[in-house]
Amino acid sequence: MKKILIPLLTLLAVSFSFGQELAMHSSPDIDKVYTEVDESCKYPGGIVKLYEDIVEEINYPEEAAKKNIKGRVFIQFIVEKDGSLSNIQVAKSLGFGCDEEALRIFKEMPKWSPGRIDGQPVRQKFISPIYFHPKLAK
User: Fold this and answer.
1) pLDDT of 82-134, one tens digit each?
2) What is the pLDDT of residues 34-86, one digit of tens each?
3) Environment class of residue 65 by beta-carbon count within 10 Å: exposed (0-12), middle (13-18) or buried (19+)?
4) pTM as predicted
5) How many CB atoms sit inside 10 A of residue 17's CB?
């Protein structure tokens, strides 16, 4: 009986350790920034509300207005696990004061719902365009 019990206990211990190691590797990495998640981060009220709020907040830059500039600025940022935005930067520039205005808008945004992997909040990289058009001038 002892001859069977010792190998069986050893096998169980090894199996348990292997299962623990798999579980540790399958859970989200605390500091990693993800681009692919199970559930994407969300602006409060959804994507339509995001663009409605941007249009309401945007101040079409005077320099862009003088030159009749239209186009998009792409803003890249990280939605942190608590929903705050960090590392906000211009991924694609338009210039003429539009980049600075786009950055201002994102720096003043409310918290988002974070992305999730296996139900756990994770840091997620996100890129969003902001459209600039002379019709937006206030």
Assistant:
1) 999 999 999 999 999 999 999 999 999 999 999 999 999 999 999 999 999 98
2) 999 999 999 999 999 999 999 999 999 999 999 999 999 999 999 999 999 99
3) middle
4) 0.78
5) 10
Query: Which residue type occupies 49?
Result: K
Give CA–CA dist 112/86, Å, rounded.
Answer: 11
Question: d(Cα 53, Cα 119) in Å, to the nearest integer?
Answer: 28
Mind spelling out the 3-state secondary structure of the chain? CHHHHHHHHHHHHHHHHHHHHHHHHHCCCCCCEECCCCECCECCCCHHHHHHHHHHHCCCCHHHHHCCCCEEEEEEEEECCCCCEEEEEEEECCCCCHHHHHHHHHHCCCCCECEEECCEEEEEEEEEEEEECHHHCC
From CA 94, how far away is CA 106, in angstroms rounded? 16
